[in-house]
Q: What sequence folds into this?
C-alpha cells in the first residue's frame, strides 16, 4: 500500500515521496529498486538522500566506493552523520585510518567530545597516535573537510 501511495504522490509532483518510496523498497529488501529511487531523490536535491545512499551501499549492496561518493556529498552539505559514517567506512571497509581519523576528528566539538573521539580512535579501533596526527592535519588542511576541528588533540599526554 505504501508503494502505491508514494507513486501516486510522485505522479502529483511530490518530490519527498521519492525518498519515502526508496525507503519502503529498502525495508522490503528490494535493494536495487531502493537504489533507483534514492538516486532519483538525490537528483531532486533531497538533503537526506546522500546519507541514505551511502548507508544502502555500505550495509546492503557492499559497494564501498559508491558509499564513499555519496557520504562525501553529505559532507558537502555539512551533514554530521555523513562525517561519522565516512569515518566508519574508511576504518572498517576501505582500510584508510588516516581518513578515518580525519573524519572523526572533524566531529570534535560539533557532534562528539574530544575524549570520546580519541577513545574510539585509540582504544576501540587501535589507531596509533602518529596516524591520528596525520588525520588531524588532513582535516585541518584539506578542502575535503568543510567542518574542521582546530583545537589541540593532546595525544602525547
A:
Amino acid at each position: 500500500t505504501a508503494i502505491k501511495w508514494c507513486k501516486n504522490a510522485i505522479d502529483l509532483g511530490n518530490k519527498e515521496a521519492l525518498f519515502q518510496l526508496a525507503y519502503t523498497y529498502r525495508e522490503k529488501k528490494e535493494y536495487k529498486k531502493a537504489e533507483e529511487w534514492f538516486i532519483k531523490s538525490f537528483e531532486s536535491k533531497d538533503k537526506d538522500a546522500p546519507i541514505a545512499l551511502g548507508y544502502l551501499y555500505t550495509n546492503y549492496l557492499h559497494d564501498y566506493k559508491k558509499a564513499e561518493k555519496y557520504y562525501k556529498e553529505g559532507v558537502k552539505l555539512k551533514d554530521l552523520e555523513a562525517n561519522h559514517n565516512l569515518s566508519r567506512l574508511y576504518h572498517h571497509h576501505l582500510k584508510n585510518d588516516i581518513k578515518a581519523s580525519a573524519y572523526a576528528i572533524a566531529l570534535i566539538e560539533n557532534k562528539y567530545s574530544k575524549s570520546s573521539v580519541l577513545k574510539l580512535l585509540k582504544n576501540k579501533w587501535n589507531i596509533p597516535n602518529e596516524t591520528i596526527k596525520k588525520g588531524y592535519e588532513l582535516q585541518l588542511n584539506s578542502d575535503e573537510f568543510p567542518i574542521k576541528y582546530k583545537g589541540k588533540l593532546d595525544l602525547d599526554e
Q: What stands out?
A: The two ends are 58 Å apart (CA to CA). The mean pLDDT is 96. Residues 31-43 form the longest helix (13 residues).
